[in-house]
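Tutorial handout. Part one gives the primary structure; part two gives the three-dimensional structure as C-alpha cells.
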Amino acid sequence: MMRSAVVWQGAALLAAALLSGCSTVENSHRQKLEMMRAYESGDNAAVLEEIGSRLREPAWYNTSAVDSGDEVMWRLEAGSMNFHLGKFRESIAEFRIAERLIGEYDDRAKVSLRDVGAEAGAAVTNLNALPYRGFCRDRMALSVYKSLAYLGVDDENAFRAQLRRLRNEQKKVQEDYREFFEKEKAELAAKRKENPSAAEKADSSASAAKLAKDPRNADFTAGLAEVRRIADRGYGNFLNPAAIFLSGLGSLRDGNPDNARIDFRRLYEAMPRNPLTRRWYATVLRMAERPLPAELEGVKPFGFPPDRDCVYVIFANGRSAAFRQIALYFPVMTAWPMCEFYPAPFSKARVSAGGGESADTEILADMDGILAQEFRERLPGMIARIVLSTLVKEGAYYGGLAAVQSSNMDPTVKAIVLLSVALGGAAYRTAMNTADTRSWEILPKEFQLAQLPMPESRELAVELVGGAAGNVRKVRLPEKCRSAIVFISAPSARNVRCHVLPMSSR
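Part two.
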C-alpha cells in the first residue's frame, strides 16, 4: 500500500512537471541565452530559427511552446523580432495571436478547472506552471509595435484606429493589474489557510528586510538595490510614455488638438523635467488655444506644425532588461528571479536634413524603469508566494519520509522505499527549484524621439552617437508620403535596422 502511494505521488508530480510549460525545469532566461547572443551579434537568422522551433507544431519529442504556458512569451518574441527585420505582416500575425491568448487568460472565469490545475502544478513544481500573461510593460509595448507595424504594411487607417485604442488600453492595463494584485492576495490567503504550518514559517522569514540580513543573500541584496534605483526612473501606475505619445499624436493628426492635450498633459506630468515632453506639451497647448502653466511660459514651441508634413524619428536603443536566476536562502535555498540590466550601445541618434534642420533624439520611455517599477511593486507578493510554495514542497518531502519510516512494512523493503523516496524527492526538488525568469526580451532598453519638418530633399542622415564610430545611415523618404515615422532598432552596434513607415494623409 505504501509503495503504491509513493508511486502514485511520483507519477502525479511528474505529470504536473510535464504539463506545466517549457520553463518548469530549465529557466526561461537560460533557454534564451544563445538566442540573445545571436541577436546582439546580428545573427538574425539564428534568432528566427530558434523562435520558429519554439512555435512549431507541438509533439512529445520537441520543445514547442504552442499550447503551453509559455506560448504568449514566444509569440511576443516573434512579433518584435519580425518587426526588427521589417517583416511587418508576420509581426502583426504574431501579435494578434498573443493578444488572443492574453484575452483568453483575462476572460477566463476566476475559478476554472484549468486555473485550479495550474495552481496545483505551481504548488508541486514552481511558478512556471502558471501561464505567462505578460507584464504591464508587455501589453502596452505590444500595442505600440502593432500600431507601427500597420504603417509598415501601408495601412494607415488601421494605424490610426489602433492609436485611438491606445488610451483605453492603457486604462484597461491599469484596471486589470489592480484586479490581478487583488486576486493574487486572495490566492495567497487561501494557500496560507491550507498550509498553516508553512505559513507560520514563511512569516518568520519572508520579507525583503529579513532576507537581506542573511550574508548568503548578497546577490539578492545587491540586485534589489539596483532594481530600486532603476525603478525610480519609472512613471507610476504602469504608464508607458511611448504609448501615451502615440495616442496624442494620433489625436493631433486627426485634427483634435484638445484630445491630444489630455495625452500630452499626462506625458508632461509623468516626465515634468524632460525637455522633450515640456516642448510637446507647450506646443499642443498653443495649438489647442489653452493657457500655459507658469513653468512652461519660457518653453519654445516647435517652429513647424508637428501634426503634418513631419518626420518622427523613434530610436529603439539597446536591449531590454530580463530576469536571471539567483539563489535565495530563508534558510532553505530556493531559486529566485532578479532583474538583469544591459548597457545601452548608443547615447542618442542625431538626425539632420539637407536644409540645415537637425535634431537629437531624447528619452521618451525608459523601458528598464517601467519593468523595474513593476517588479518592485510585485515583490512582496512574489516573496510570500515563492517562500510558501518552497516550504510546502519541503514539508511534503519530509512528511513522505516520515510516513515511510513509521510504516509497518518489512525492514528491507522499508529501507529500499526510504532510499527511493529520498533520492527521487531530492532529485525532483532540485529539478523543480527553478525561478520564473520568463519575460519578453526582444524589446529595447529605451525609446527615444526626435521630430523634424519633412525635408524638401526627402533625405535624412542618421548618426548613432556614443557607440561604434562611423554608424551613419542615409534614409530616403518615399515621394508618396507626406509624413513618416523613421524607426531605428539598435539592440547592439552590430545589429542596427532602420525602417521608414510612411503616412500619406497629412
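Part three, for discussion. The chain has one domain: 2-236+318-446. The radius of gyration is 26 Å.
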